[in-house]
Amino acid sequence: KGEHMEFYQLKTTRKGTKPPIWRRCLIPADTNFGKMAEMLQDILEYQSTDLYEIEFFQKKVRISNLTAQGADTAKGNYEYLEAKDTKTSELLDTEAWFTFRVKEADLPEYRADIEKKVEDAEIKTADGVKKASAPIILKETKSPNDDFWSKESEEINTLLNKKYDGEFTVKTDYTQSQLEKAIEDGKFTFHNVGTDVRVLSDI
To answer: What is the pTM (predicted TM-score) of this model?
Structure first.
């Protein structure tokens, strides 16, 4: 992993809602659709399931956990891809939006607009501004007694940070002697100072 971390900024709007109910979020870019689906289920408050589908209507592509669903990939005019084998960048870099659904009765579908790709996203936390290192909800609009979203976004962000932070972080667990050698060699190395990750020259 390099020293920079990229995210996709998505605006996920519940289909059929007026006024629209939505959450804007950041999803780490360096991942596959299986992992992204897991993150979206947490952000959109679905129960964790393998019965999800990500549909790119314009491209006529549907991405899901084919192994778990045993989908008939021969029917219709869609191409079917296995989520865990498909990198998000293969489609999110070129497409404008996709539909995210869980194939169970009475659950809402979402339209996810791919707003932009962000490098080194800075987020405000209780400890001040820091770089995002896990998926996060930036903003939301929901109804007061929402049928599907019962949690506040801050609560979900805490969960997301606990669950995913570390999967995408840089290596920092060096010994003191390794750090000293790196200083001698003039290497660009990350290390921990308390809860901060710093570049070696900061010591």
So the answer is: 0.78
